[in-house]
């Protein structure tokens, strides 16, 4: 079967990157749904990173079909190179926050984990599975990983909102040291043990990619995704009675619910976009807006992080926010306007890259 680019996946990737930039750049007091849940629970903000991992799983399947999943030396080199580069870029972003303040040799306090580092590890393990294992084992492997992780949480006080008791926090502390961890929550939200359910998360995205590839018509694809998504959401919410939804520990229930919602969103976008594309219908402007983000997702995420650090440390972010606040009195609405403005700045960067036909990939 010949590979055809799926426009709805590009749009979903663009929505995810734009949302990630949006929620990462609120200022002052903001709406509760634009903040991470304090511990157990889930907000809109908590859905963004899971969407990113889900899309990576889908893309991993679709991209590796072009090589028929053959583990050639060239393919293995590509997987290892991409893993190392993703991890290194994540470390660079962490280092840049120190460097912009003049501390160029901040290696003794450099945080090891972050978004791109987790993406790197998940990409590596899922790619190795895709190249060396039979794909029919993807769901049994997901179940095994989530059962193992559930046991870790139950027997290791994984839900304890106290770093001295929580096995996730203690593992990171003993392996990497206090100075190299995130300290604004009881556990590092991208810590080592949390990679286990995150790999399961990406594998579910991989399974979604397999469904999309195997079903011949858009009708069949949409039905398969809706059914799978509904089963996952229902299973996740039932599981949450014993293992609550928690983004910080990346609980098994959180994996199932967020993956299920990702399946459903992908199905809805297929109905809205791929149907109209096959019928030569003109796409709404909003889809073209998100396509700009989707075509240079990694570059725009990295540029947004570096730009936010730069503007924040030279005082521009606060100056702009205060200027907005003078016009928009309620702090939550001023924060919302600031985030929208920051997304639009990054859109202009993406627009320039897109129309210069510059697509930055690893």
Report on the structure:
This protein is an all-alpha fold and 362 residues long. The protein has 2 domains: 115 residues, no CATH class; 240 residues, no CATH class. 68% of the residues lie in helices and 0% in strands. The protein contains 13 helices and no strands.
Blueprint of the fold:
Blueprint: H1 7-24, H2 44-64, H3 73-99, H4 115-132, H5 138-155, H6 167-176, H7 195-214, H8 218-239, H9 252-278, H10 285-295, H11 297-313, H12 316-327, H13 331-355
Helix pairs in contact: 1-2, 1-9, 1-10, 1-11, 1-13, 2-4, 2-7, 2-9, 3-4, 3-11, 4-7, 5-7, 7-8, 7-9, 8-9, 10-13, 12-13
Output the radius of gyration: 20 Å
Oligomeric organization of the protein chains: single chain
Give me the strand/helix succession.
Answer: HHHHHHHHHHHHH
Strand content: under 5%
Q: What's the overall average pLDDT, rounded?
A: 92
The share of residues in helices is 55-70%
Counting DSSP E segments of at least 2 residues, the number of strands comes to 0
Distance between the termini: 25 Å
Ranges where pLDDT stays below 50 over 5 or more residues in a row are none
By DSSP (H or I, 4+ residues per run), the number of helices equals: 13
**Global structural class:** mainly alpha
Number of discrete domains: 2
Q: What summary fits the major beta sheet?
A: none
The shape, in one word, is globular
Question: What labels describe this entry?
Answer:
362 residues, mainly alpha, 2 domains
Quick recap:
The protein is globular, with a radius of gyration of 20 Å. The chain contains 13 helices and no strands.
């Amino acid at each position: 079967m010949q590979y055809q680019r799926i426009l709805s996946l590009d749009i979903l990737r663009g929505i995810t990157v734009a949302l990630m930039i949006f929620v990462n750049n609120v200022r002052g007091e903001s709406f509760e749904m634009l903040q991470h849940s304090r511990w157990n629970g889930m907000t809109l903000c908590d859905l963004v990173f899971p969407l990113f991992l889900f899309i990576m799983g889908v893309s991993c399947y679709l991209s590796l079909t072009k090589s028929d999943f053959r583990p050639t030396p060239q393919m293995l080199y590509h997987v290892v190179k991409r893993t190392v580069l993703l991890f290194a870029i994540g470390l660079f972003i962490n280092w840049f926050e120190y460097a912009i303040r003049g501390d160029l040799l901040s290696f003794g306090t450099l945080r090891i984990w972050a978004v791109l580092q987790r993406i790197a590890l998940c990409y590596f393990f899922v790619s190795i599975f895709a190249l060396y294992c039979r794909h029919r084992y993807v769901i049994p492997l997901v179940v095994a990983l989530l059962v193992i992780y559930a046991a870790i949480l139950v027997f290791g006080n994984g839900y304890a909102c106290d770093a001295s008791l929580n096995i996730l926090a203690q593992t990171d502390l003993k392996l990497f040291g206090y100075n190299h961890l995130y300290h604004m929550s009881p556990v590092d939200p991208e810590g080592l043990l949390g990679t286990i359910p995150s790999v399961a998360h990406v594998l579910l995205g991989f399974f979604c990619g397999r469904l999309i590839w195997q079903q011949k018509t858009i009708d069949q694809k949409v039905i398969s995704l809706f059914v799978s998504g509904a089963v996952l959401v229902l299973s996740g919410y039932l599981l949450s009675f014993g293992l609550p939804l928690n983004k910080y520990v990346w609980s098994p229930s959180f994996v199932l619910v967020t993956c299920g919602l990702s399946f459903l969103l992908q199905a809805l976008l297929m109905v809205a976009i791929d149907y109209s594309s096959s019928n030569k219908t003109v796409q709404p402007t909003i889809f073209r807006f998100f396509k700009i983000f989707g075509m240079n997702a990694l570059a725009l995420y990295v540029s947004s992080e570096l730009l936010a650090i730069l503007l924040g440390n030279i005082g521009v972010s606060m100056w702009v926010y205060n200027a907005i606040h003078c016009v928009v009195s309620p702090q939550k609405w001023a924060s919302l306007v600031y985030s929208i403005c920051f997304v639009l700045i990054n859109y202009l960067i993406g627009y320039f890259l897109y129309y210069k036909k510059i697509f930055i990939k690893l």
